Amino acid sequence: MTMKRGGWLAFCFAVSVSFSPAAPASAQLGTGRTITIVVPIGAGGGVDATGRLIAEKLQERLKQPVVVENRPAGGGMVGTDSVAKAAPDGQTLLLMESSAVLHKWLHKAVPYDVVVDFQPIARVAISPLILIANSSFAPNNAREMIALAKARPGQLFYASSGHGTSPHLSMELFSLMAGIKMIQVPYKSSGPGVIDLLAGQVALMAPSMISGIPHVRSGKLRALGVTTAQRSPSAPDIPTVAESGVPGYESAQWYGLLAPAATPKDILEKLHREVTAVLFAPEHRELLGAEGGIVVAGTPEAFTAVIRAETAKWLRVAKDAGLKPE
Question: How confident is the model over 294-316, as pLDDT tens digits?
């Protein structure tokens, strides 16, 4: 199976979106009942695209319906909470984005704890973010952007997919390391932010590669750098932020599949096996890689360790940036 770069999003949107209510705890995989993967952001971002690939191919392997349900309200908290409170039967899963590890520190009255209320199945993929600008923006790289921001402190506006999301925290880390001050304009998801960036309503954004790179390739937006320590294999011509103005800078968005905390071990093990088989199929790795994604699918234990390490890292960034619960 071969798909051109840019075809990934079209493929993803071909998968239907529907809703399946929580099932009784006695249900088992393979019964024909619908499995719902909750994506707690709007359609169109990297988490959503990845979820649709998993849903479509997991359905083929399990021989039962698997659908994606987008729940973008509350900065991702509404969808996340719905899975924390769902029946622990493997029928309702969460595709979590990395910024969710800080929900309880950056939002007031969060009704769940990512570590306590979920069982990790697999960290699915890692995606660099890409620092992009409107085509009319004067700076051509991160170094020139920093110089402009220092000359105009507090006058550059950047879009994010919400308070405390990876695009927000990555820009806060960038600002801290570069010694500049920019103003966040939060949106409910990456899609509306990219639209306003295209329209020139904001100057900058750091969305996932899946969200940003098609517009860079079309010439509508300008890439200033990728956020990972190494250049992306899917866009080797774009320098890293670290090499183009902020030495040592590194940030990556990751996605992981989780189930409610009390889900039986046998269900978790089967889901891990099947999801891993889906992700490591060569054609699926190609689809993700075309837009910058890197398949991980490690063990649940490794995923738990990542959650704890990422929580510590981004909590430090949030405190240093003076971010307060909203």
Answer: 888 788 999 999 999 999 999 99
pLDDT at 45: 64
Tokens 């990728």 locate to 226
Residues of the chain with pLDDT under 70: 1-31, 44-46, 284, 287-292
In sequence order, the β-bridge partners of residue 260 are 118
Count of H helices and E strands in the chain? 11, 11
The token pair at 155 is 């006058």
* Residue partners of 191: CB distance under 8 A and separation at least 6: 42, 43, 44, 45, 211
E strands, 116-203, in order: 118-128, 130-134, 157-160, 183-186
Instruction: With beta carbons less than 8 A apart as the criterion, state whether 100 and 254 touch.
Output: no
* Burial group, residue 251, by CB count within 10 angstroms (0-12, 13-18, 19+): buried
3-state secondary structure of 264: coil
10 Å Cβ neighbour count for 282? 8
**Alpha helix positions (H), 152-281:** 166-178, 190-199, 209-217, 265-279
Specify the length of the chain in residues: 326
Q: What is the pTM for the complete model shown?
A: 0.78
pLDDT of residue 2: 39
Which backbone phi and psi does 307 adopt, to 5 degrees? -60, -45
